[in-house]
Amino acid sequence: MDCVKMPIFGGLFLIIVLGSAGLPGLSGFVGEFLTLLGAFTAGDLLGWKYAAVAGIGLILGAIYILYMVGKVVWGPVKVPADHGEGGHEGDHGQSTPPRVHDLNLREIVVLLPLALGCLWLGVYPKPVLTSLEAPVTQIVEHVRHRQTTDLADAPGTTRIIVNPHRMTPPPHEETRGTPHADE
Q1: CA 15, CA 4: separation in Å to the nearest integer?
Q2: How does DSSP classify residue 38?
Q3: How far is the C-alpha of 22 from the C-alpha of 14, rounded, in Å?
Q4: CA 161 from centre of chain
Q5: SS3 53
Q6: What is the pLDDT of residue 183?
Q7: CA proximity to 180, closest of 156, 151, 154, 160
Q8: What contacts 84, CB < 8 A, 6 or more positions away?
Q9: What phi and psi, each to the nearest 5 degrees, are found at residue 117?
Q10: Which residues of the chain have pLDDT under 50?
Q11: pLDDT computed for residue 74 by the predictor
């Protein structure tokens, strides 16, 4: 497709695809930035090694997307011979090139809100991030609770319950039947 022959499609295609590649100011950048920031600040759970691997993946993905954009938007027009319009022999025995058309109104009405949403999320993501804050906090608290519970109940660990009157280890298989320290 030549961008000169289909400028509306080319423009909308570029906005949506470059948003997917993580171009700053578009929707994908916000997600990629927050993901890398979370990996870097996760401490021992993920850390800089996982963020570095993710960064390499983002770079390779952007290279692939830019290569695809170069082929699709600025590459030659390739229309199948049985496209229905053009590509047939004219009055003089010469083949006429196939005609391509830009987006019609229905296609513009479908793609324009997607492109505007991509721009809006990239420039002003606060409403979406604010609406996701409470559920994400709830999930993080649940995961942290499960981690502490799983660590405390892991085999080979001893949990001490502090009681002002006496201290007892939890009733694990290896401690059952042993007398308490104060008995």
Answers
A1: 16
A2: H
A3: 12
A4: 43
A5: helix
A6: 45
A7: 160
A8: none
A9: -65, -40
A10: 87, 90, 163-164, 167, 175-176, 183
A11: 81
Place of tokens 């030549």: 2
Look at the block and give the residue holding tokens 């390739």: 78
Q: Residue type for 44, please?
A: D
Q: For 23, which DSSP code?
A: -
pLDDT of amino acid 133: 92
> Could you tell me if 16 and 114 are in contact, meaning their C-beta atoms sit under 8 angstroms apart?
yes
| Residue 176 CA to its chain's centroid (Å) | 49
- Tens digits of residue pLDDT in 71-123: 888 877 777 666 555 545 545 555 555 677 888 999 999 999 999 999 999 99
Q: Tell me what pLDDT residue 100 has.
A: 73
Listed by start position, the domains of the chain span 7-124, 126-178
Answer whether 0.70 is exceeded by the pTM: no
Backbone φ and ψ of 168, nearest 5°: -135, 140
- 80, burial (CB in 10 Å: exposed 0-12, middle 13-18, buried 19+): exposed
DSSP structural state of residue 6: -
What is the spatial distance between Cα 60 and Cα 39, in angstroms, rounded to a whole number? 18
154 Cβ partners below 8 Å, 6+ apart? Answer: none
At 123 the pLDDT is 94
Q: Are the C-beta atoms of residues 120 and 128 closer than 8 Å to each other?
A: no
Q: In the structure encoding, which two tokens stand for residue 178, read together?
A: 């042993």
